[in-house]
Amino acid sequence: MLERTDDVSIVTVTAGERPERIDRFLARQGLSLSRSRIQRGLDEGTIAVNARPVKPSYLIRPGDRIAIRLPTPTRVELQPEVIPLAIVYEDPHLLVLDKPPGLVVHPAPGHRTGTLVHALLHHCRDLAGIGGRERPGIVHRLDKDTSGLLVVAKHDEAHTGLMRQFKNHTISRRYLALLAGDVRPRRGTVDLPIGRDLRDRKKISSRSARPRHAVSHYHVMERFGQATLVAITLETGRTHQIRVHMAHAGYPVMGDPVYGGRRAMPRTDVPIGRQMLHAHELGFMHPVTGLPHVFTTPLPPDMEAACQTLRLISLATPRQP
After folding, report:
1. Cβ(270)–Cβ(309) under 8 Å?
2. Confidence category of residue 134, pLDDT binned at 50, 70, 90
3. Running DSSP on this structure, what letter comes out for residue 24?
4. Pick from 144, 306, 308, 316: most CB atoms within 10 A?
5. What are the pLDDT digits (tens) for 141-175?
6. What is the SS3 assignment for 236?
7. What gap in Å lies between CA 255 and CA 179, rounded to an integer?
């Protein structure tokens, strides 16, 4: 039985219903929600059973009251904007760019203009609609304060081919990160399933109703005593993966108060104004030509300046005998 109010829908499981996964059950209740959107709602806690969060594998029972609180989608009319782009490579099928820190990839609440998508619509006049109306051409994303390489598809064939590689984890990605502390050992792996945090839905952690397989490999590039520059290679590409994994290992990304707390915030004489994370290398098979491509980009000026300051501090600090 379905009841609706202005901001919530209530589905009551009636007598006679057989046990069934909740995501499958809701998908046939006339809610105009795809199964993937239902699973995301369960993951984010906007769908609950008897006022409690449950997993998509939860089996419904007669008498269950399922509350669905999903925000009404706001239609965004995207307009091209003249925003400079650092293009690393471009051909008729795709482009690779070096995203600066502070640039949001696609429109979201609080960022309806001035995003990378708006810049791409100006640069590529026929991009609209590829991969979705609000994310045209976007194959993957970087956090607002993460800099570095992104690949963008110019048509559906390229988008499908690149998305397949990301899904199959055949894309190679290497990041450079400035971490708090003296990272030990020199090489290591963090194998920690992560997902939407059960207590704070805006964060990612291992405390999740639906943790997903996530693996990060790191090796030390340079030590500064109070901080370490490391290279991190991803086997998987989960949301906030590096930030969560390295904080779990005890070495949070510098400038990241969300996962690193006070430990991630440097001395006042170290110029850090954002999380020190840079997508340094990106490799993939061209979705049309089939040829391998690997691109790299150096540390951005702010990360280089932070490293230089840390070097000078390290040289000036007496070493313990």
Report:
1. yes
2. low
3. H
4. 306
5. 999 999 999 999 998 889 999 999 998 999 999 99
6. coil
7. 9
**For residues 279 and 230, what is the distance between their CA atoms, to the nearest angstrom?**
12
Convert the pLDDT of each residue in 24-53 to its tens digit: 898 888 776 777 788 888 888 889 999 999
User: Tokens in use for 302?
Assistant: 């702010």
Q: What is the pTM of this model?
A: 0.76
Q: Where are the beta strands (DSSP E) in the chain?
A: 2-4, 9-12, 47-49, 52-53, 65-68, 87-90, 94-99, 147-153, 172-180, 187-191, 195-196, 204-205, 215-223, 227-234, 277-285, 292-296
CA-nearest of 56, 53, 62, 60 to 23 is 56
In the block, which residue shows the tokens 């769908």?
47
The single residue of 43, 64, 143, 256 carrying the catalytic annotation is 143
* Spatial distance between the Cα atoms of 17 and 61, rounded to a whole number of angstroms: 7
Q: Which residue has the higher pLDDT, 114 or 282?
A: 282
Active-site residue, 43 included: no
- CA–CA dist 309, 292 (Å, integer): 37
Per 3-state DSSP, the chain is made up of helix, strand and coil in percentages (nearest 5) of 20, 30, 50
| 96, 102, 106, 108: CA torsion to nearest 10 | 170
